[in-house]
Amino acid sequence: MTMPSRIPEPYGQGGGANLADILERVLDKGIVIAGDIRINLLDIELLTIKLRLIVCSVDKAKEMGIDWWEDDPELSSRAHSKELTRENAELRAHVAELEQLEQSRAERSKSPRRKVEQGRPEERRTEEGT
Fold it and tell me: What DSSP assignment string belongs to the chain?
């Protein structure tokens, strides 16, 4: 009489296909894990941490309107390029503004200035010894 083996089968035998199926389903449909951690002391809330975890494929995330990684320069080369383009446009506008300001100052300095005599005529007469 043989006794059935109580040792579980290694993961490589038969379980791989099931794991792949589960992973495919999770990535296709998505899974959400949510939790809150609150720390209170004498009915005074000291700290609240809200944790949200979504596991899904990139395509599914885009369907749900989640695409924050596309605008993060740390994660996307296109986002870095967009950031540089925006910064470049801002700098060009600032340089143009400064050039316009400098041009208007130069035009003001070229225009003929009227000589303004200091003091009123009455004051000049008293200073001259009248």
Answer: -PPPP-SPPPTTSSHHHHHHHHHHHHHHH-EEEEEEEEEEETTEEEEEEEEEEEE--HHHHHHTT--GGGS-TTT-HHHHHHHHHHHHHHHHHHHHHHHHHHHHHHHHHHSPPPP--SS-HHHHHHHHT-
Q: Which residues contact 64 (CB under 8 A, 6 or more apart)?
A: 30, 56
Q: Is the pTM of this model over 0.70?
A: no
- Cα separation, 107 vs 100, in Å, equals 11
- What is the spatial distance between Cα 46 and Cα 15, in angstroms, rounded to a whole number? 45
> How does pLDDT run across 61-75, given as a tens digit for each residue?
888 888 877 777 777
Whether the CB-CB separation of 41 and 69 falls below 8 Å is answered with: no
